[in-house]
Each structure stands twice: as C-alpha cells, then as structure tokens.
Amino acid sequence: MVDCSHLKIQSKMFSRIMISLNLWISLDGNSLTTGDLLGLGKGHFKIQLTTEAEKKVNEGRVLIESFIKKNQVVYGVNTGFGNFAQTRIPNDQLKELQDNVIRSHSAGVGAPLSPERTRMLLALRINVLAKGFSGVSMETLNAIVAAFNASCLSWVPEQGTVGASGDLAPLAHLVLGLMGEGVMWSPQSGWADARAVLEGHGLTPLILKPKEGLALINGTQMITALGVEAVERAQAIARQADIIAALTIQTLKGTPKAFDPDIHAVRPQQGQVEVAWRLRSVLHSDVFHSEISVKGGERVQDAYTLRCCPQVHGVANDTIAFVKKILTTELNSATDNPLVFAERGITISGGNFHGEYPAKALDFLAIGVHELANISERRIERLCNPSLSELPAFLVKNGGLNSGFMIAHCTAAALVSENKVLCHPSSVDSLSTSAGTEDHVSMGGWAARKALRVVQHVEQVLAIELLAACQALEFHRPLKTTPPLEKVYGLVRSVVRPWDRDRAMSPDIEAVHKLIQQEKVWESVIPDIQLYEKKHPLQLSV
User: Fold this and answer.
1) Residue 248's closest CA among 307, 205, 192?
2) Catalytic positions, please?
3) Domains of the chain (ranges plus CATH)?
C-alpha cells in the first residue's frame, strides 16, 4: 500500500512557507523542487542562500582568482569562446571579454518571457550558481539575488536558443539587464531602461569579473524553467481530466465495470491503476450513490473513449511523473562550462550545458499529455452526437434555431489538430553552430515552448468537455449524480449558467479554463475522494 500523497494539497513548496512569515526559500543548489520553482515564478517567495552554498561559491571563486594570478590558461577566463577557445586574451582585457560575451550573445528575437517565467529563469540560474561549480563571486551572486527579490527582471526574448552550450541567448539577455543595459521590468516601473530600474530599487548594475559572463549564461535554465511550468500544469490537468471524464461517463450513462480493480491488478501499470481508482472514487459505488446510474442501468460495455480512460489517461500520468523526475534532477545540476572543482584545484571542460535531457523529456511530455485532449475531443463528440448520447443534438433545446455546442466541438477539434503538429519532437533536429565547434544541439528551447502550448490546448479542450458534460447533466434533471460530481457541477455553475438558447461561448470556455488552471475542479472533490480512500485505499506496486 502506498500513501496517497496526491490527495493532499501540499508539497515541499508549501512547507517552505512555514520557514518564516517572510516567505523565504533558502537555495543550496541541491534541493529545489518543481513546485518551489513555480512558486518563485509566481512571486510567492524571496531567495536567500544557505551558508554552505556561500562557502562553496567562495571556494570556487578563490580558485579562479588564483589561476588569474598565475596567468594560467583557463577556457572562458582568459580565452575566447567556442571556436575562439585557442585565442588567448590579455589580462587587461579580461573584463571587456566578459562584457562582450553578454552583449554579443544577446541576440534573441520574439516576444519577451512574461515576468513570471523570467522570475523562474532567474531563480533557477541562482540555484545552479549556488552549487559552487561556476566560479562566480559572492558579490555578483548576491547582486543577482537582490535583483530577484526586488523583481527587477530583464527583457528575455523567447526565441534564439538551440539548447546546447546552454540557453546562451536567453541567459545573455537575462544578464544584460542586470548589467544595466537594455530594458527591464519591475512592478513599479513596468518595462523601462534597465539602469534606471535598478537604480530606482537601490541596486547597482553588475560589474562582471573574469569568467562571470560565461558562468552566467552556460546552462539549460530556459528549457528547464519553461519545462517546469509545463510539467506542473500537465500534472494538474491530468488529475482533473479523470474527474471530467467521470462526469461525461455519468451523463452518457456509462458503466463503471471497466474500472473494477481486478481488471487493473492484472495489468499493474501504475498510472492506469491510479486513474481507475480515481474514476471509481467519484462514480456510483458502495460509497457514493448516483440516481442516474440507477435509472440507466448498466451497459455490457462502453466505447473506448469511456471504457479505456484508465489506460489512456494512465500513461499520460506515468509520462508526467517520468518528466518531472528528469526536470527535478536538472533543477539541481551544475550545467556550466568549464566546471570549477575547488577541492581538486582544477577546472574541467565538459558538456553539462547540453539540453538533450530536458529537451527529450519535454518532447515526450507533449506527446503524453496531448492524448488527454485527443480522447477528450472524442468524448465531446459523443456528448454532442444524439445518435451516440441519447441526448438532444449539440446539447441544446430547439436545435436548428440553436446550434448549442456544435462549434465548441469544432474548437476542441482544431486545438487537437494543432497539438498533433506541435507533438512532432524538436529534439530529433540538430544544426551545427559556432563554426563546427558546437556541432550537435538539442533544440530544447522549442521543445519547452511547444510543450507549454500543448498543455494549454489540453486545458482548453478539457474545459470544453467539462462545459458539455455539465450541460448534458441538465437533461437528466431532476436526477442527481454522485456528491463529488455534483460539486464539480456546482463549481462550473458558479461561473457559467446553463444554456437554454445560444449565446457567445468563448467567455464561458475561458471562465472554466481558469477554474482548471487554478485546480478548482480537483480541489472541489478532494474531501470526497479522501472519504472513499478510507474504505478503498489505493494500492500501487512499488
């Protein structure tokens, strides 16, 4: 038996709140979670560094300074970058070298990341630097932490990274603003001149020391930060997809026989077992009563979109868990080059900046979570099609005069079709860059960005299904479904009234999409699921 921690609205992120009333997170480079990072992005926390992290950062910097004093050649300290690695830079130009790498690499294009995503990017970069393997000084790191805590956030264009040698362009833009160049956002100023924003908050623009420019831009933090948002949102929609599917199953008078625990015990895929249990926990059972199930009787078996929810939703859950594990490791990994090993007194060039791990994982996430929308759209079709639903066509009275959910279903179909294109993996591509030095890249930036788009489309499709299922329930009244599903219905009706005639649907879709993004659907059923759990604990193979 496994503790059903998925039922508890708590995580390490929330436990951090109890550290102090000031909502601080102590970063050490080793223990950041995806929930922590999402909270940092939303502005729930400020950052402080642990004493151990400061010690390691100082030790790394002492080693870099010793190399400079000895005039020892170290890549990125007193050499050029990439194909210029063999070019020696005189000591009197070392500061200019670091400034130049930031300016020259600030070559991104496109819309800027939102303040929330920029905050995640900056927090993640701080966490990686806190590991002590990058060679930055505490003076510089403290200045970056101060900028984060003041929400002074650089303009970071979302396009321009190939995801190897790190997310160079996005991270360079991140640093450029901290140097007082370009533009920067803060809650007080909005977008404004970066130097003015910093000075308005009593902050001094960064003055980069040898290696620090390179140390601040080598890494997979753009891929990983956006990937964290994608996987956290994917996890939220996956849980809620089970509840939404259950409501559809009810309104179509489906049978819960297919969710019998013995069926899933003989194919014990973890996600499948868990989804079947969740479906049982809100449908007609020895715990909860549904008048609709009693009236409709039990079918022999249902169509695949109803009967196979555990199998289809299940693998999406397992995919999300796999990706979350990869990204959690990436959050707490040193991805700089060269890496500084103070205890050995050396720096070593390697390839930890290569984004193949998060890129492949996020391509996989897009494919896995998309299937929740793919099957949801088919359930919407069943709800709208009177030959399949035994309900009024398109879930509206006076069909013909009213079109009901006809075009809402088309919207779902359009989003699913877009996802099919977006699910083509970006990480199968590579283009040689930097005159052949960086001759294999991950294209992970696009993997992360499109994973986010796929997740959003999934949320929107499931919002349409939830609206359709609630409307279908109207035609079963005065019969009631189970208490947990009635709560979901009540939640939706708190923001969207039933359809008795046609009206603009877009605002209603957006209102329910917002409920889903806020995880309100899941929260509304947690007490009932916990009640079911007492009698029927979830059992998973470990």
Assistant:
1) 307
2) 75
3) 5-218 (1.10.275.10), 227-535 (1.20.200.10)
